[in-house]
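Input (structure):
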């Protein structure tokens, strides 16, 4: 092409610079450094080779060593065991063998068999309670509207039990992948930084949340037994594990987000220490790999628990709308009573769970993404060598191309925006429903006026 252009008196076209993604840039940089390293070794004056870092090959870690440094598993084991006992997530810890993942999931494991037994017993109770509540809801047409709303809410909660195999068990392999990513990441972090990830107060916090989840479930169900005249005591046997499961889901999300923030701060502190040293380019490359792994783990969290938390958000959304509409409707018709206060308590409970999930996801994403990016942008590039400058630039590109977003497998992003969007949707539906209610009241009053005349 250049010879043809020169022959006809034209300038040769300029080269088109390809656009590379972070992995391609990383591979290209490693190839260039490897070639430079080989050229230096071919000369007699080899000199100092510390500037020519070549990516290390992945090695298979000793399972005993993985167990020893798996602090996240040991500190959160109580919640994992509670999920196994409740039959919610029957994953298991594999024996320490080479080439065998430390956490696994199998449809023929004893954990899955136990979950099937628990599900069968719980489903039997749910069917009995559901039949009783539906019969009372259909036959007693002279009940107050707020009592009907209570029935609708607690009937809808019973249906979450039937979604458990689809929403939870089906994603067991993805949950096992997420747990194994944490196990491998902690040992890799120790090898790169020389210090382990420490999760302060996570062990007592996990135990406390396990106990609190069941205590709160018992309190909620017993309060409904005393507040509702048709809520019999044996009904609570079906609702105890359902409400406790919702509380445990919120606890699990809080613990994982807290762990992501702790790991990000530990990596950030090591990064700051490394940047103060001499020629930190080699370590920056390894830190970039650690950060990308951390971002991928956050994405895997949403993928592994997508169905469970999708169901969770739907239950919260439906319950909040029904309870809010029922309370306002009864206040318009008969004035405020203690039953309406109970409905507002249900609304507050649901919105609190949603706020905790969205707020913790926001802080985790900010800690891993924005805070890390800010610290890299504050690095004085004029005070470091050219290799370090390239690594900082590649680190920033990796953060931009791999945003730490918690996404429910494409259904929704878990962040603070989800709270505002849910509130706006609920407000829209409530306005429409209340308009129908007011129109109905006006029609009734007009009919009564015509009858009196």
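Output (sequence):
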């Amino acid at each position: 092409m250049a010879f043809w252009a020169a022959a006809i008196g034209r300038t040769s076209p300029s080269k088109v610079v390809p656009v590379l993604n972070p992995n391609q840039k990383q591979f290209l940089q490693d190839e260039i450094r490897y070639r430079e390293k080989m050229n230096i070794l071919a000369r007699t004056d080899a000199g100092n080779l510390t500037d020519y870092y070549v990516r290390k090959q992945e090695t298979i870690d000793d399972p005993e060593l993985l167990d020893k440094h798996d602090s996240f598993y040991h500190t959160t084991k109580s919640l994992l065991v509670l999920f196994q006992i409740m039959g919610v997530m029957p994953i298991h810890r594999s024996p320490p063998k080479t080439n065998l993942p430390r956490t696994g999931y199998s449809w023929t494991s004893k954990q899955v068999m136990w979950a099937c037994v628990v599900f069968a017993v719980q489903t039997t109770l749910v069917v009995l309670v559901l039949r009783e509540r539906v019969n009372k809801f259909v036959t007693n047409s002279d009940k107050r509207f707020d009592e009907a709303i209570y029935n609708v809410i607690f009937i809808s909660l019973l249906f979450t039990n039937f979604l458990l195999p689809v929403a939870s068990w089906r994603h067991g392999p993805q949950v096992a992948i997420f747990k194994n990513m944490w196990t491998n990441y902690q040992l890799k972090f120790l090898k790169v930084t020389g210090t382990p990830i420490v999760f302060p107060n996570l062990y007592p916090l996990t135990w406390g949340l396990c106990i609190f989840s069941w205590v709160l479930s018992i309190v909620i169900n017993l309060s409904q037994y005393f507040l509702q005249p048709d809520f019999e005591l044996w009904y609570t046997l079906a609702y105890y594990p359902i409400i406790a499961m919702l509380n445990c889901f919120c606890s699990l999300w809080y613990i994982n987000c807290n762990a992501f923030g702790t790991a990000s701060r530990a990596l950030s502190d090591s990064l700051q220490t490394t940047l103060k040293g001499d020629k930190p380019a080699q370590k920056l490359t390894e830190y970039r790999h650690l950060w990308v792994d951390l971002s991928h783990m956050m994405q895997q969290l949403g993928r592994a628990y997508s169905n469970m938390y999708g169901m969770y958000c739907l239950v919260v959304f439906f319950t909040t709308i029904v309870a809010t509409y029922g309370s306002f409707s009864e206040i318009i018709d008969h004035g405020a009573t203690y039953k309406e206060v109970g409905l507002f308590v249900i609304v507050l409970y649901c919105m609190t769970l949603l706020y905790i999930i969205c707020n913790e996801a926001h802080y985790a994403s900010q800690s891993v993404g924005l805070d890390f990016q800010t610290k890299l942008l504050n690095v004085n590039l004029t005070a470091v060598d050219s290799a370090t400058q390239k690594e900082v630039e590649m680190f920033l590109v990796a953060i931009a191309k791999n945003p730490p977003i918690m996404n429910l497998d494409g259904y929704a992003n878990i962040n603070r925006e989800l709270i505002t969007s849910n509130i706006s949707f609920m407000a829209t539906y409530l306005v429409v429903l209340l308009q129908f209610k007011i129109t109905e009241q006006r029609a009734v009053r007009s009919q009564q006026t015509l009858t009196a005349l």
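Notes: The longest helix spans residues 236-275. Confidence is low (pLDDT under 50) at residues 1-7, 12-17, 44-55.
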